Amino acid sequence: MTSSTTFGCYWMRSARRIAIVLAVLLVGAILWATLAPLAPISREQLYQIPRGTSERRLAGEDLEILPHTIRLTLGRNDVLALKNNDKAPHIFGPTLIMPGQTFRLPFTTASTNSFVCTAHADGQLTVVVEPEPTPGLERLRWRWHSLTETA
To answer: Can you give the pTM of this predicted structure?
Structure first.
């Protein structure tokens, strides 16, 4: 056996071992993602109404300062917080949010809610509260969506 043949066999065994280790790590990561509990960083999802919003809207500018649909997840980020940094008050649902004030709205059930919102040009905001994903494929999909949504 020549040294090049010995080197080739050694390289093939090393490559096979590396492939096995990578496969085990991948399977371990998938199992963790499907079964590990979701630990909330903060249950509050904060959105801010920037200063000058009302003036710019009165001047006819079409502003998109908040998403039209806000998605929350029970047990993860189930408190909607709206901070009014504008000089004018804003209405969210039945609540008047004064300048500098933060309004917090906790959700306790999965639901889809429509609110009047003067921070939007069309005056509407939808809040979708989704149930916490159960262990398994649903949790894996949720984690994947969370990773790809922020990237």
So the answer is: 0.64
Per-residue pLDDT reduced to its tens digit, 46-76: 999 999 988 888 888 887 888 999 999 888 7
Residue 125 is assigned to a structural domain of this protein: yes
10 in a structural domain: no
CATH number at residue 123: 2.60.40.420
Cα torsion through 130, 147, 82, 106, rounded to 10: 30
Confidence of residue 129 (pLDDT cuts 50, 70, 90): very high
* Residues 105 and 80: beta-carbon distance below 8 Å: yes
Q: Is the dihedral of CA 132, 136, 140, 141 positive or negative?
A: negative
Taking a C-beta distance cutoff of 8 angstroms, is the pair 124, 132 a contact?
no
CB contact at 8 A, 112 and 91: no
Let me know if residue 116 belongs to a domain.
Answer: yes
CA atoms within 13 A on the CB side of 125: 22
- Provide the edge-to-edge strand list for the sheet that holds 44-49: 44-49, 79-84, 102-106
Give the alpha-carbon dihedral of 11, 16, 20, 25, to 10 degrees.
40
| Domain of 97, in residue numbers | 44-132
The total domain count for the chain is 1
